[in-house]
Predict the structure.
Amino acid sequence: MSIKNFKGNVDASYLKEMAKLLEDIKDTSYQMMNLTPGTTTLDIGCGPGVDAYEMAKIVGKEGKVIGLDNDPEMIKDAQENFIAANLEFTIGDVKNLPFNDGYFDSVRADKLFQVLPPDLILTRSSKK
Ligand SMILES: C[S@@+](CC[C@H](N)C(=O)[O-])C[C@H]1O[C@@H](n2cnc3c(N)ncnc32)[C@H](O)[C@@H]1O
């Protein structure tokens, strides 16, 4: 595992190794999202695409998964490694999601919030 060389940067290979270690937790999160065949879901901060690919298997060919990340290198890695007809990866920012309200049946963000700047995750009512 590449963690022995970890220097504070979260790169694609580290996230892929972590995905193996966290497989059970991730599977539980998919169950809690009520992912079922034919549903449409969004993975914000999808990183290298491991989770989006797993969810694409669950929602099947009638469903759709979009993985969104603001790092073009992560999206490139995801597009190169995870290919499925019902799976798309796109560059985008959680601050300005390019989707209409209600487009998705479910949305997830795994290990995204801890990398966002505090001013982004504080709600207006919590800023005094
Ligand atoms: C710790 S990684 C988690 C990746 C993946 N969800 C996983 O569990 O392996 C956080 C990801 O969030 C992305 N990210 C950070 N800020 C973002 C933002 N403002 N909008 C979208 N993605 C962002 C990073 O590029 C990175 O891929």
Q: What stands out?
A: DSSP finds five helices and four strands in the chain.
